[in-house]
Specification:
Shape: globular
Strand order of the largest sheet: 5-4-3-2-7-8-9-11
Strand content: over 45%
Number of helices: 2
CATH architecture: 6 Propeller
Number of strands: 28
Helix content: under 10%
Largest sheet: 8 strands, mixed
């Protein structure tokens, strides 16, 4: 009798252990190393339609109502997309004088002007949007990224002396203002990131790729505020190595990007994150892109939402234009209406 009771007790303990183990394993998918939680309100987006793309495209700016896409295969082509996403028009730019351009150049539309940025070639071309010709030429320092801010002025992301990333305001072939990012103790890639303009504003956003920070500056590069993204990954020491034979500098080892993309409107800074929160299922996170929304006023976190895959394609980039969100896939452009 005692043996039977002992066996029953052992079986009960074993059964409870199995239940606890299964419970733990079920939670394991949720318990990420992010150390933070996201808020996911419902009904933030309404799908409004999509456009099938024949070539790989990129966002090339916008006017007040229209969106423009550049084409990776045809570097002088712009596609204008109307507010209902179905109205499209193609145009091709020409250059007033023959010149060599480098791979990596990109087109940008700001207000009524078209631009061609070539950081390797150290030049920016521009022309009236209606004339379809680049007839103004500005020589620049070498740069890796840039945006037009009007009045023949540009904000350029440069690498000073091959070691420090800086932002410069450039106009009439002169550097007006310079802001260094980080200190001499940081590696060049520590402060790598991307610029985003704020529509109808004197503000710009600079988002850092490798740690949880973005800053708001005015167009003279004076600091307005510094804010943390919702994840808990702060400054990480990124080490770079120089490859003398190729005259290049690259990251040594692995360094995962924390913040991938950024876009702004007059109310929000929206950032694509690559870090999973503690309250997100791994399976859900891997099948969607997560966008975190911050206030443009002070950088405070508001909430998050998902952008799903489309026809097995992942989101490549996104652009917020007023109350519309445009999501770029490999072969699709999808339009959402923002309900916030």
């Amino acid at each position: 009798m005692r043996v039977k009771i002992f066996k029953l007790i052992c079986c009960s303990i074993f059964g409870m252990g199995i239940i606890l183990l299964l419970h733990f394993l079920s939670k394991w998918d949720i318990k990420a190393s992010g150390g933070f939680l996201r808020k996911f309100p419902s009904h933030l987006l309404i799908g409004q339609g999509f456009l099938k793309l024949s070539d790989r495209s990129y966002f090339a700016g916008n006017s007040e109502k229209d969106l423009f896409l550049g084409n990776r295969r045809f570097p002088f082509q712009l596609m204008k997309v109307g507010s209902n996403i179905k109205d499209t028009a193609y145009s091709y730019r020409s250059i007033a004088r023959p010149m060599g351009l480098y791979k990596g150049m990109f087109l940008n539309v700001h207000d009524s002007t078209s631009y061609l940025f070539d950081g390797v070639g150290r030049i920016i071309l521009s022309g009236n949007q209606s004339q379809l010709e680049f007839n103004r030429f500005v020589k620049t320092p070498p740069f890796v990224n840039g945006i037009a801010i009007g009045n023949n002025s540009y904000l350029l992301q440069t690498i000073q002396q091959g070691e420090r990333i800086s932002l410069i305001k450039f106009r009439n072939e002169k550097v007006l203002f310079t802001r260094f990012l980080g200190t001499n103790n940081y590696d060049v890639f520590d402060n790598d990131g991307i610029l985003a303009g704020v529509p109808k504003s004197s503000s710009i956003i600079y988002m850092f790729y490798y740690h949880n920070k973005f800053i708001c500056l005015d167009t003279n590069l004076r600091m307005k505020y510094e804010s943390k993204t919702i994840d808990t990954i702060g400054n990480r020491k990124i080490k770079s190595i120089k490859i003398e034979s190729k005259r290049t500098t690259t990251i040594s080892g692995s360094a995962n990007v924390i913040n991938k993309k950024v876009s702004c409107n007059s109310k929000w800074v929206i950032i694509q994150s690559s870090i999973r929160a503690d309250n997100e299922l791994k399976s859900t996170f891997e099948k969607n892109a997560v966008l975190d929304v911050y206030s443009i006023k002070d950088g405070g976190y508001i909430f998050s939402f998902y952008i799903p895959m489309l026809d097995k394609e992942r989101m490549i980039d996104f652009k917020v234009l007023g109350n519309k969100l445009y999501v770029l896939y490999e072969t699709y452009l999808y339009q959402f209406l923002l309900k916030f």
